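for the writeup, i need someone to sanity check this before i put it in the appendix. the sequnce is what the collaborator sent (i think, or maybe the updated version? ugh). structure was predicted straight from it, no edits. if anything looks off just tell me and ill rerun, i have time this weekend
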Amino acid sequence: MENYHELINKAQKEIDSSDHLLFVTYNIVKDSKFVFSVTNQLIDAVKYALEALLEFERKSKLIEPYPKQFNFMVETFKKKVAERREFEEKTLTFLNKLVTMEQTIDSSSLNFRRGDTYVLADEDFGTQSIELQTIKSYFSSAQEFVTKVGDIIEQD
């Protein structure tokens, strides 16, 4: 079990790195694998921040032990932390979208780019697409989430 301060620092580093990759490097590369690796970085940043917050809550004896899988951490957050810490409903929606996005990326065997849209295909040729603008909005939401969690932890 890591210290929640270390986890929030890791989350901030992932945000900083994805910021540079998404808004600077992407303009040069424009590769679908690159975009999905940035998306995975955003997911990792949110996971670190979420785990930091849950560890903080746990050390404060406000929640009981929880499973470390992303979808279970999101559920624990929704049921036991979000309302008390005054997170907005859009944050819960965003976290659910990230869980779905992670599962989609993990299960896809093929990805490619069409303009500013990135397409994921699984073994059964089911497809899902995501636009670059959506990934950029995920970045903004992830950044807000990490900042808010950092603020909560720093109050300690």
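The chain is about 70% helix and 10% strand. The chain has one domain: 4-154.
thx in advance!!
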